[in-house]
Each structure stands twice: as structure tokens, then as C-alpha cells.
# Entry
Amino acid sequence: MDANNIKYDIKYVVDGKKYVCNESQCQHFNLDTVVEEGILKVKLDAKAKVSFVKFDLRFPYTYLQNDKIFVNGYQSWTDSMEYEPKGQMKELTKLTEFLVTKTILKRIGLPKAGDILFWDYPRKSGIFYGWSYGYVRRGEDVEIFGSLNERYGYTVVTFDCNANEIVISKELEGVEYVGESKLLELAHICGKYDRAFDEYFDKMGVKSRENKKRCGYTSWYNYYGRVSEQDIKRDLESIANQDTKFDCFQIDDGYQENIGDWLITDKDKFPSGMKAVADSIHSKGMIAGLWLAPFAAVKRSKLFKQHPDWFIKDKHGRPYNTGHNWGGFYSLDIYNEGAREYIKHVFDVVLNEWGYDLVKLDFLYGACVLPMHGKTRGEIMCDAMDLLRECCGDKLILGCGVPLMPAFGKVDYCRIGSDVQLYWKNQKHRIRDDTSTPHTICNTIFRRHLGGRAWMNDPDVFMLRDYNMKMTFEQRKLVAKINSTFGSLLFISDDVSRYGEEQKAVLKETFAQKDIKIISAEFVEQDVMQVAFEENGKLVTIKFNVRNGQYA
Ligand code: 9PG
# Structure
């Protein structure tokens, strides 16, 4: 990176008038751009109230044919993988984008989990973009381009192989800048894969809060929202009565009367209440986990009915729908005092009165879907993660549905891929954040560098059961192998008392503590992934098609 080699591509507004700027200095502001010890720093000095519509810095970069390019999806669920320079990202078509953003379908909020409402997709071969960081890999060597701080606004890293450029953009919507402000700190790091990521996290000053692998259970991927105390009691007993050791048992979505009313338990489904459930988990010697979406609420919740003013509003002052799940939901404005007090109270009850040790905090992206209060989306998400950590003290947080970098070092475990499905098949027009077995498998492999650095990676569950299942046993075992090789939170959702001898043996083997060293993991043909690793000193190679889960 060379500060003299930058092309500025900036569009901004002052007093309602649009301007273009292609220099570091213009009529309304100066940019102070320097490179110090491999860190590119950009500071703004605005002489008027400036709002940026586009803020791109372009650098020359020569791509080679055999380079592999990694771009990081917006949040936990977004598909993330390595591409070849001539490849193309699988984005929504213009038509689907139009349907879900401009027509009546917008009401159901389908695309709000991702970035489609605030970032233009390139939709061309040879152009790849991702959030906060990305890399170009040449064999074992990578060059990371990574933001050091998303509080100045999200950073988008685009690899443009057609123009032989790298574009660093800032997402600065919603802020009027005046006077001095930092806009960017970006590290450029070259080295072997693991060493380069160590250096990137050192430069950010981020450390993983946890280093423990955990084996456990979550209720979601068998019962989904229909879970009941009976299911939980039975599965808990089954786990306690067999010999593979579990250390975590987590209740997912479905115990609460309504999304948002976390403290009002559905008494028909959980008649003994959630404290009794935590107590029974503890009595079996496991830590107890509970799912909640601390910022979310549906219209019919008591929370929303009593405090509609605590929620994020659109520019007309109406509550803004932040996603389609549960028939549509809204998200709390984390800067509203009442909302903050409510969130604190919820955690106080869940963690201290009920006694849960781990909370799976989901749909967190909702906090920052719109810029507000003169803050960018990136700053809001950083503040939201600070609030959650403050509320949870030293208890364990499993992050989910969260824009990644604001959660670095804030959560103990984090989902780094979409939800696994009960089948493994290729779905051509999948939204990038939606449930998908191929997406979650790719993410488990290609986001492995976050594990042990930002947090411990949650690859989502593997399932070995034969009932309520549409994967072949070979496919189920493959998910288990990928998860235990690349991930750290190894959860199932099965009633283990229904396992046969082979399933019991695979479970034991998957949960066993192993010494693993990844040697390589990459696409060797279209959709064909090859992974090579040492397991307890023995070389293992696996080659399979990620789209259909068949060995290649
Ligand atoms: C509970 C679930 C589970 C699961 C989470 C999350 O894009 N989508 O439509 C979409 C739906 C559900 C979803 C993720 C994405 O699942 O990942 O583990 O906790 O919520 O409701």
C-alpha cells in the first residue's frame, strides 16, 4: 500500500447539493492519508457539514490466475468462501432484488438479515466484495487487507480482478461530518495463513475470550419452535444415561410466549418454568444455555405493545420491520434508555435468577439495520456488542446472526455460517444469509481463521439420527467430520437414546479431544473441496462436492 498510489472516488452532499471528489483535498474537506508500519490511516477534516454517499479508495493490484480470493460475508449466516479471479459471487439477481426490496414483499423483510438494502452487489464475474477484511492467497501465503476498527463505519474490501485494483470503501450513511474525524485504519499483512491472521488480530488488539472446545446439545434442529419441556426432559435424560460426555445443554427458540417477552414463559409448553429447566440441566453436570434475540420483538408481544417508542423507526417515525422471521419483527433502539434498562433486566433474570451459564444471542444484526442518532451502522453494532457484554459480565455468550467484526473479542463463541438444513442439496438461488447446508459447510472451512482468535467458532450442529432427517448417513458423518475438524462448538439436536451402535461410535469419535493441524482446504475443481489435515499426527485427506455432499 502506498498513499501516493491511491485514487479517490468520493461522492458527498453539502447543504443538499451533490459533489464529486477525486482528490484528497477539495472545496469542503481535506483527507490526511498516511501509511505507518503497514497501516493505512485516513483522517477527515471537514470545513462544512459533509455527508458521504460514496467513499472509495482504489489501489492498483496485480492478480495472478491461480490466486484465491476470500471475501467475508456481512454477518454470521452470510456465505463466505474463496473464489478464483475469474469466478463470480452468487448474489441475488436484479429481479429478485427488485421483488424483495421494492414490491409488497419488502413488508415481510426477507432481505434484512443481510447487506442487500445498503450495499450494491457487483453482479459481475471477477469482482468480489466482503466486510471488514479479506485476503488474496497465493499457495500458503496470504495478503490480508483488514480494518482495525469498525467504529468509524463498516469497511468494505473489494477485489476487482477486471480492473486489477483493490477498493477500500467506507459505509458512512447517516452521518454528517464536521471538523476532524478518523475514517479508516486498515492493515495490510503478508505471510503464511496462520501467522498473518495472528498478526492481524494482534494489530486489532483482539483476543479470544475462550479457548475451550465444547460438546453439547441444542433443541432447535429437531423440534424447532415446537419444543416442549417433555422433549427437553427426555433428551436430557438420554444424554445423561449414555457414556459420551456432554458439557453443554442449550434450549433454543420456542420456550417464550412471544419474541421479545423473554421473561414470559409459554406455560403450556414449559409448565415448570425456565429456572426449573436450568436446575435439571445442572443436576446432570452440564452448563445450561438459553437462546434469545435480545433486541427483537414481534408486534403481538407485551414489550412492543407497551413500548412501541423503544423501537427503531423509519424516516417517517414508524416502527421499522427488521426481519421476516416469526411473521416479521422489530428491533430495540439500543440508545433508548428504557430499552437498555429492559435488556439489562432480562439478562439479570436469565443469568442470575434462572441461573443460565450461556446465552445464545441471535438476530443481533437488527440493532443496526438503519443508521440513526448520527451514527453509522458500524458504530451502532459496536455499541450494541459492548452493551451485551456489559449485561452478561463473565457469563458465556454464543453470538448468532451478528455482523462479525463488531463481535470480535466480545462473544465467547460465534456462529460463523448459516443454519444447516435437514438435507444436503444444491439450491441455486439461495439468499446469501438463508439456511443452507452447502453455505454452512463452506463457511466452517473458510472462516476457520476466526476460531481461537476472535472467539471459538460454532459451525452449527451435526445430526446423526435416522428420524426427522433427509441426509444419508454418509452425509451426516461428513458434516460431523468437517465440524469437529474446523469448529469448536460441537452440538447435536438428537435424542441419543434412539441411536444404534454405529451412531454412538460416531458421536464418541466426533466429541473426542484431538490434536488437529489443518494443512490445506480449498476448491480443486468447480464445487469440489479438498481438505488435508493432521489428526493426532496422522494425515487425513477428504475430497467432496460441497453442493451435494457426495465424496469426489
Ligand atoms: C431460532 C433459530 C436458531 C438458529 C439461528 C436462527 O434467514 N433465515 O430465514 C433464517 C431463519 C432462521 C435462522 C437463521 C436464518 O435461525 O441461526 O440456530 O436459533 O434462529 O429461531
